[in-house]
Amino acid sequence: MNAPTEIGDLVERAVDALRKGGIIGLPTDTQYALSTLASDGAAVMHCYALKQRPDDDAMPILLPSLHWLDRVATDIPAGARALAAEVWPGAITLILPRNPNWRSLAVPGKTVAVRIPNHPLALALLAALDEPLTGSSANRHGEPPALRANDVHASFADAVTVLPELGVLPQGSASTILAWSGAEPEIVRPGALSSEQIEALLQRHCAVGS
């Protein structure tokens, strides 16, 4: 178990860095993320530059809670909502229509990719901020993902405030990405949750709703 004071100290350090426009290396349940406040345009653009990622390539967004889903997305299918409630925090990312009232330079298009990561430090930080973070993988564009704090340090040195894993190591498998076209989901990227697991979850939702 991680001492609450240790997590609290790390969260305080991360909040301070983010509020000052910084970028943090954040451990999640899948891999390390490069995170900025999604609302901080300058920090988002700095993150794109560090990653050498095209700035029209949208970044995933990490949400503090399910209550944020309707603030960043709209026209959410019942199946997507049920899956989020069942799996989050967890390794599934949903691509949904972006709420036109919510804007971020990390999400230049009409859709937004969202999830809640299942890692104690990430959850504590998101709860403390109560606002979305970017969740792009902590590596330069096209390179392997970072699974340890040392990996992030090796890639970005002092440009990023890196938080430790706290003994909860990212599993390495990327999150499964689902996009909805109408009522039916499509697996855009296979990942930690298999298609069979997703189908079972959706079928259970249909059975309960019938």
Parts with pLDDT < 50 across at least 5 consecutive residues: none
**How many helical elements?**
7
What would you call the structural class?
alpha/beta
Largest sheet report: 6 strands, mixed
What is the straight-line distance between the termini? Answer: 41 Å
- Kindly identify the CATH topology: DHBP synthase
Tally of structural domains:
1
Placed side by side, the strands forming the largest sheet appear as 6-3-5-4-9-10
C-alpha Rg, in Å? 16 Å
Per CATH, the superfamily is: DHBP synthase
**Highest CATH level, the class:** Alpha Beta
- Which word captures the global form? globular
Number of strands: 10
SSE pattern, N- to C-terminal: HEEHEHHEEHEEHEEEH
Query: What percentage of the residues does DSSP assign to strands (E)?
Result: 15-25%
The amount of helix comes to 25-40%
CATH architecture field: Alpha-Beta Complex
What does this molecule look like?
With 210 residues, this protein is an alpha/beta fold. It has one domain: DHBP synthase, CATH 3.90.870. It has seven helices and ten strands. The chain has helices at 4-19, 41-51, 69-72, 78-87, 120-129, 149-156, 195-209; strands spanning 24-26, 33-35, 61-62, 92-97, 111-115, 133-134, 136-137, 161-162, 176-181, 184-189. The protein has a six-stranded mixed β-sheet with strand order 6-3-5-4-9-10, with helices on one face. Strands 7-2-1-8 form a four-stranded mixed β-sheet. Strand 9 (176-181) and strand 10 (184-189) form a beta hairpin. Helix 1 crosses helix 5 (120-129) and helix 4 crosses helix 7 (195-209). The chain starts with a helix and ends with a helix. The model has no long low-confidence stretch (mean pLDDT 90).
